[in-house]
Amino acid sequence: MKSVSTNDAPAAIGPYSQAIVANGLVFVSGQLPIDPATGEFVSNDPVEQCRQSLRNIEAIAKSVDASLSRVVKTTVLVKDLSCFAAVNAAYAEFFPGVAPARTTFEASALPKGALVEIDAIIALRDEKS
């Protein structure tokens, strides 16, 4: 098991790793829509927050020589499920091929007052079917 840390994604805000590599998988902790350059949310718009959360996941994937095309599962947390269609459209921009398995929940509150948080599981190599 190995901890992953990159300056291209926001630092963990608690006692956890940005991601953990174990058994050929990368388990990415929930990514808030924080711009790692500023340490601030990119916007108060849930669509832009979705995009930034996915950019953060992409940066973590790149740090282990992977990409979003290897994401096998995500969990999307949104503060207000009424924005689901718009967030879903932004999410789809990042997964033009085979979309990963996904669960989406409405959460009454997210860390730091975020409107969106996304975690992911990434395969380090392709499975042979």
Would you kindly provide a brief summary of this structure?
With 129 residues, the chain is of the alpha+beta class. Helices cover 22% and strands 31% of the residues. It contains two helices and eight strands, in the order E-E-E-E-E-H-E-H-E-E.
Give a written overview of the molecule.
This protein has 129 residues and is an alpha+beta fold. It has one domain (2-123): RutC-like (60s Ribosomal Protein L30, Chain: A, 2-Layer Sandwich). 22% of the residues lie in helices and 31% in strands. The chain has helices at residues 46-63, 84-93; strands at 2-4, 19-22, 25-31, 34-35, 40-41, 71-78, 101-106, 116-123. The protein has a 6-stranded mixed sheet, with helices on one face. The protein has a two-stranded antiparallel sheet with strand order 4-5. β2 and β3 (25-31) form a beta hairpin. α1 (46-63) packs parallel to α2 (84-93). The mean pLDDT is 95.
